[in-house]
Amino acid sequence: MRFIAMIHKDPDSAFGVQFPDVPGCFSAGETLEEASQNAVEALGSHIRMLEADGDAIPQPRSLDAIVDDESLNEARADAILVSVPLVRDLGSTTRINVSLDLGLLQAIDDEARSRGQTRSAFIASAVRRELAD
């Protein structure tokens, strides 16, 4: 599931992020890339809080629907629209079976070791970054 976010940059400020379909969910970042990555975490945290409170989870609209929504004209002005994945941390891990080329697996293990991470932690962080892009 992906939500559309609007990223704005005012002079002398960080990039601000808001979600038209998720009222009250905001984020920011010093760079556009950082703002996009922080938006993934903010969205996941906000949805987790809604679920904990027993509130309904909003349904994301398509990019076309956001662009066509005249009530968003002002908020959309000068905004960069990005699609943000909803990544839920459910607090439990699951063992899976994945097939990879041996050379890729060796590269993953080498990089994970150099960062002081396990193979699983490295793959999870790489997937999170890829989903945010």
UniProtKB/TrEMBL annotation:
Signal peptide: none annotated. It comes from the Bacteria. InterPro entries: HicB-like (IPR031807), TA_system_antitoxin (IPR051404), TTHA1013/TTHA0281-like (IPR035069). Residues 3-126 form the HicB-like antitoxin of toxin-antitoxin system domain. SUPFAM superfamilies: TTHA1013/TTHA0281-like (SSF143100). This is Ribbon-helix-helix protein, copG family. It comes from Devosia equisanguinis. The lineage of its organism: Bacteria, Pseudomonadati, Pseudomonadota, Alphaproteobacteria, Hyphomicrobiales.
